[in-house]
Amino acid sequence: MTTPLAVGADPTSFRFEPATTALLVIDMQRDFVEPGGFGETLGNDVSRLRGVIAPLRRTLAATRAAGVRVIHTREGHLPDLSDCPPAKLERGRPSMRIGDPGPNGRILVRGEHGHGIIDELAPVDGETVIDKPGKGAFYRTGLGEVLSAAGITSLVVTGVTTEVCVHTTVREANDRGYECLVLSDCVGSYFPEFQAAGLAMISAQGGIFGWVAPSAAYVAALS
Ligand code: C5J
After folding, report:
1. d(C-alpha 169, C-alpha 130), whole Å
2. What is the ipTM for the molecules in this complex?
3. 192-207 and 167-175 helices cross at what angle (nearest 10)?
């Protein structure tokens, strides 16, 4: 065992070993951050999420340079929508639902252009991409097995949206015993008030389900 690295975080310093840590990049897909996708069909201003792209690019570069494992996720459904619960399908604006044709292909359907990860954050060779039908990255995916096989015990979590897929994933990861650090400028919400509250909820009560730090603190710890 090597000396763990430490990141100045809320509520306390976050300590991690690069070899047993993975950077999780949640749902940085066109469907959420570009016009014409799932996020916009729900009435959201998708430009609000674009602020995470630059810090996340820097974070990805530092993570890759340090040899820390990177795992991306994508929310989406099979073309026949058999993995989409009726409750999820029925929700949202009736004019544009999951599976409907949009400017980037069928909304939130695997294999469509809109389902893809944005070019700026595209996975590179050797990085795992987990397709998930739900908000959490463990539900009906192989993520748990991937992490166990790699001996991962700590997760550095980024992506969108803070209060939905990031929260669902971090809460479950915490229940499964992972130590989770959420990078505050690398997660984004369509709602500024949810961003602030979502981050505060994670580190409150002595870190009830994780730690929060700016990405610069994590990048500094790696270098
Ligand atoms: C949502 C997500 N918000 N990736 N998905 O539906 O947070």
Report:
1. 13
2. 0.96
3. 20
Give, rounded to a whole angstrom, the gap between the first and last alpha carbons of the chain.
19
Closest by CA to 183, choosing from 129, 219, 151, 208, is 219
The predicted model gives 183-203 an average pLDDT of 98
pLDDT over 70 at 1, yes or no: no
- Find the helix or strand (DSSP H, E) in which 159 lies: strand 154-160
Q: The tokens 């469907």 sit on which residue?
A: 31
132 in active site: yes
**Which structure tokens are listed for 205?**
């009560």
Q: Is the CB of 165 under 6 A from ligand 1?
A: yes
Structure tokens that stand for 135 in this block: 């908000």
CA atoms of 100 and 7, how far apart (whole Å): 44
Is 118 within 8 Å of 30 (Cβ atoms)? yes
Residue 212: DSSP 8-state:
E
β pairing state of 128-132 and 105-106: unpaired
Concerning whether 83 is annotated as a catalytic residue, the answer is: no
